[in-house]
Amino acid sequence: MQPGAVAALGVALSLVATDLQWHAAAAADASWSLGPGHSAAALTEVLGDFEHQRLVLGRALDELGKAARHAGALYVEVEQQVGGRFGPGAPS
Questions:
Q1: How many CB atoms neighbour CB 6 within 10 A?
Q2: Closest Cα partner for 68 from 1, 7, 12?
Q3: 3-class SS at 13?
Q4: Mean pLDDT of the chain
Q5: CA angle 78, 84, 90 (to 5 degrees)
Q6: Calpha distance 26→22 (Å, rounded)
Q7: pLDDT tens digits, one per residue of 12-35
Q8: For the chain, how far is it from start to end, CA to CA, in angstroms?
Q9: On the CB side of 33, how many CA atoms lie within 13 Å of its CA?
Q10: SS3 90
Q11: What's the pTM?
Q12: CA distances from 20 to 8, 60, 71 (A)
């Protein structure tokens, strides 16, 4: 895997995390449409559980994305430091 691909994966994971967090907030905001009563309360409870799980997953994906971007940068740094030390014609 190329370092750019690792960094791109990190960006993509962060975008998914942001999307999950947005959906969690949107779902919570939509529960008002049922009006007051037991159905709205039950939906709010269920959506609250989903919202919580989406937020937890979103935070985890965001952290994973940051780690992937960092790993991609480290990969590039190591490649630059190692250079051609191990390829054909490298010093013994």
A1: 19
A2: 7
A3: helix
A4: 75
A5: 140
A6: 6
A7: 888 888 887 787 777 767 666 666
A8: 27
A9: 6
A10: coil
A11: 0.58
A12: 18, 11, 23
